[in-house]
Amino acid sequence: MSDAVRVGAAAIVAAICAVVIRKQTPELALALGVCAAALVVLSVSGTLSSIVAFFRKLAETGGLSTAVLEPVVKAAGIAIVTHLAAAFCRDAQEGALASAVELTGTVLALAAALPLMSAVLELLTGLL
To answer: Cα separation of 26 and 60, whole Å?
Structure first.
């Protein structure tokens, strides 16, 4: 909970600073937002190791190959990066670019999930 409070407080402070700066130099406000977002994401990157450890334990316990869970993690990562990039594009008043980023993220997430979908298809054909 304390991490969420720290992240929230930092984000609010950065947002207020960006609003104040945006009147004079919108480019600097966008750069401030990007830097603040990077710091917020980096602040929780340590938690990522415990999530990866859980997925490994889940794979071992369930007798699953890491190749089965890897596409899920990749797709989640792609979704996070795409969401952040599209939000920054919208902040820069580039709605079309934000839509293109979201479309690209969707395509890349589907491509990352192909190994998993192939494994499901093989399983289904084996059952039939």
So the answer is: 50
